[in-house]
Amino acid sequence: MSPIEFWFDFSSGYAFLAAQRIEAVAAELGRSVLWRPYMLGTAFSVTGARGLSSTPLKCDYAQRDWARIARHQGLTFRPPADHPRVALAATRAFYWIEARRPDLAAAFAQRVFALYFTDRLDTASPEAVSRLVPEFGLEPEALLAGIAEPALKEKVRKIGEDAVARGIFGSPFFLVDEEPFWGWDRMEMMAEWVRTGGW
């Protein structure tokens, strides 16, 4: 069976919440998860939308909602004061790791989420992101060189553009058997769709 594609921007509060549950949801459904970070700005350039944290009224509500959900689920949630940060360095690092050690990619993504939303990791800083990789048995210097390579930069850009071309425009965004589900609050519907074969 095809995996659940989990598309997200590392700076998305709702994606952080989804990342806490997606592996368990997929396991219950007998599916794997294909973690797919991308730059949400790529979608915004097509849709004309703005991020929640840049939108009046929605910004205040989202911050309240994230904190409320985190309390309900027993999660620590402390985004940086300058949230959202452009997570390009973390996104490039993910794909660099995936190309070399695909077995580590999901754990790396989870670690980035955890540190950004609880420990104020600067996901925009290559140096800050590189300091995470020794715990995965990788060399910071190798990662820094890798994510600076034009081929890797082009790969990440193309992944985002291809995602938008497939109709992916938000974070989190799920595709399962080519059926799209947008948002953390669609995870239960997605699971029911898979269990029942859709409707």
From TrEMBL:
Task: Provide the DSBA-like thioredoxin domain boundaries.
Answer: 4-192
EC number annotated for this UniProt entry:
5.99.1.4
Under which main EC class is this enzyme filed? isomerase
For whether the record's keyword set contains Iron, the answer is no
Q: Name one Pfam family in it.
A: DSBA
**Keyword field:** Isomerase
Molecular functions (GO terms): isomerase activity
Q: Which reaction does it catalyse?
A: 2-hydroxychromene-2-carboxylate = (3E)-4-(2-hydroxyphenyl)-2-oxobut-3-enoate
For this protein, the record's InterPro entries field holds:
DSBA-like_thioredoxin_dom, GST_Kappa/NadH, HCCAis_GSTk, NahD-like, Thioredoxin-like_sf
Stored PANTHER family: GLUTATHIONE S-TRANSFERASE KAPPA, GLUTATHIONE S-TRANSFERASE KAPPA 1
Query: Hey, which family's this protein in?
Result: Belongs to the GST superfamily. NadH family.
This protein is called: 2-hydroxychromene-2-carboxylate isomerase
UniProt source species: Cereibacter johrii
